[in-house]
Amino acid sequence: MKNILFFTGRELTVEEMQEPIPDLHHFAVQPGVSDEPKCQRCGNETNFSSHPCARCGKECLYCRNCIKMGKISSCTTLYRWTGPEPDVPKAAGILHWSGTLSPGQKTASDNVLQAIQQQKEHTVWAVAGAGKTEVLFAGIATALSEGRRVCIAAPRSDVVRELAPRLQNVFPNTPPAALYGGSPDRHTYSPLVISTTHQLFRYTAAFDVMIVDEVDAFPYTFDHSLQYAVQKARKTESALIYLTATPEPSWREDIQSGKRDATLIPARYHRQPLPVPSMKWCGNWKKSIVPPAVLEWVKTKEKALLFYPHIETMEKALATLKAIDSRIESVHAADPLRKEKVAAMRRGEVPVLLTTTILERGVTFPGVDVAVVGAEDRVFTESALVQIAGRAGRSADCPTGEILFFHYGKTTAMVQSIEQINEMNKLGRQKGLLDT
Amino acid sequence: MNRCLLCENGTEVDSWRAFFGAKAPPLCEVCTASFNRLSGPCCHVCSRSLEEDGECTDCQSWRKSIFHSNVSLFHYNEAMQDVIAQFKYRGDYVLASIFAEKIRTEAKKAACDLICPVPLAPSRLAERRFNQSEALIVCAGLTAAPLLGRHESEKQSKKSRAERMNAVQTFYPTGEATGKSVLVIDDIYTTGATMRLVADALADAGAASVKSITIARSGS
């Protein structure tokens, strides 16, 4: 029955239930806000407001934290399916992939598989461009073959949209359900779910394997309710896999001290070292906007990303740089043409793309050079700079690339990001994962 | 620290002002700046922006009504659309407090005998859990006089401009307002059709004149 599939693992308000609602005896109910108060969907315990409610006739508390996903009030009832789970077909886990894993990937893949089989926690710390998605294939295949349900949670919807077709290709028998705000898949059932962390709020004890991609990325690290969502959506007995290229310092400590079970892939799949950034003093760039050194750099480039710390300085710089080459563009998070400009950059139509940290991760432009203007600004944390450097030299055809930090005073973040990259290259060599 | 109702930023007042009882504003400076206060020449009936002060063609063409005038506070720009959508459709009641002070000031200027909310049809009220017009009045510390009821009908916001201008009456009087001036407070003024239907129903309740205050003025 189609409805049962939809309800499995979900916990929903009556507005989210699709008609006709199947056998109500198979639903457990609870109030949307508990007495403490605590929102039973997102776990919020501090951000509430209230008003006289026309439905229940009382002064009714509502959660402001997850209100963008539909309002949860004291008089809201949450419905959770308690009937039988659907069978996952045996063929669900058949893997259609002919690629080979690098030795670094192979180790990580084996450890992920083992963690999934033993329902344990495991972290994969893989440098940008290591090929961390492929590391998941064997584990997901095994889980699906054994009739278990798998979720990959990512912090941003563009990552979900990028991952879904890749997994669809390798698991053609199990088209994944891609969930993000406004997604066309939101009413479909699949044993393989790829979701933004926000959409996980609608699940309870649903997944046997929970994989959290880019665990260090905004907003996951800052938003405790998203961590709550991850814990709520997985079953008590389940595996939890974390993926990251730049773990936070506290995670790194836990990994190095052995408190956190982890696999490190310090080298890229193409066996070339990570390009190392260099630093160049450029004077007060806030005044000059495009310092002479930056201008000279831009003039020589055919394919480059130029990071600015703020939209305002970036837009001023664009005006100056457009005079050199009118094809130069800029992009930021709220830019309505963001997708189009990134696509034009991919097609090679934009020689230099100015950007905020929005393009620090998740994007690949083969053969790109990278510079940061105002690298000392506090938005450029150690992780941000490592991620930015990770844009260069990703493809096997162009494994090198230039990375330049233009600055008006060195910061610890800049120095440590370069140290981190050097350290990874050293480890890669020690482990025999690099050719040079 | 107090948090902005729309983002993660803090909102603080200088400590010396807090000492004299000043409250932290509901929004941070960035969010406050994203709203665009209506100013400059406008239609003295409906607040529409014009080249010079006067009466716009729409208002000239409306049939005779006890409707006197509308004052809108803000342009219906993107930030305002977002905040009204979160308030009205998402049901974030507390956002009414963003406008409380300005509504109170304008209501004082309008100096009417009674303040009446725009009613919702029963099914819509149950769906939304509260009446946004009443919420704006109550949060401004004013007293709402429920003088009207509303029959079930289609959503106004789903209708075209022509459909709105010729909308049929769905409001009916439930209270007594003989000889009174009535102030109506609502979220958006678009064509003025809703306000004139409200005014007609208030005329049936005996009202002598009707003014309105709306958060945003939409339409060109």
Automatic annotation (TrEMBL), chain A:
Q: Which PANTHER family match?
A: COMF OPERON PROTEIN 1, PRIMOSOMAL PROTEIN N
Record domain Helicase C-terminal: where = 290-436
Highest taxon in the source lineage: Bacteria
Any one GO MF term held by the record is:
DNA binding
Instruction: Give the protein's recorded name.
Output: Competence protein ComFA
> Which UniProt keywords are given for this protein, alphabetically ordered?
ATP-binding, DNA-binding, Helicase, Hydrolase, Nucleotide-binding
Which Pfam families does the UniProt record give?
Answer: Helicase_C (PF00271), ResIII (PF04851)
Q: Where are the transmembrane segments?
A: none
- Helicase ATP-binding domain location is 113-265
Claim: Hydrolase is one of the keywords in the record: yes
The alphabetized list of GO BP terms reads: DNA recombination; DNA replication initiation; double-strand break repair
Automatic annotation (TrEMBL), chain B:
Q: Which residues form the Phosphoribosyltransferase domain?
A: 166-218
Pfam (any one): Pribosyltran
What the entry lists under InterPro entries is as follows:
ComF/GntX_DNA_util-trans (IPR051910), PRTase-like (IPR029057), PRTase_dom (IPR000836)
What SUPFAM superfamilies would the database entry show?
PRTase-like (SSF53271)
Signal peptide bounds: none
What family name appears in the similarity comment?
Belongs to the ComF/GntX family.
- Full protein name: Competence protein ComFC
Source organism: Domibacillus enclensis
